Amino acid sequence: MRLINDDLIHSDIIKSLCLGVFSFIQGKIFSTINTPVPE
Known about the structure:
- The protein has one helix spanning 2-34.
- The mean pLDDT is 81.
- By secondary structure, the protein is mostly helical.
- The chain is built from one helix and no strands.
């Protein structure tokens, strides 16, 4: 049971990490699009 629990906790951490990285990249892309590009 402990192994399964550890796996669940691990996947939760990985999931939240992926979500954080994804939202961070998304924010960067949006800020880049919103910022006028110097010609």
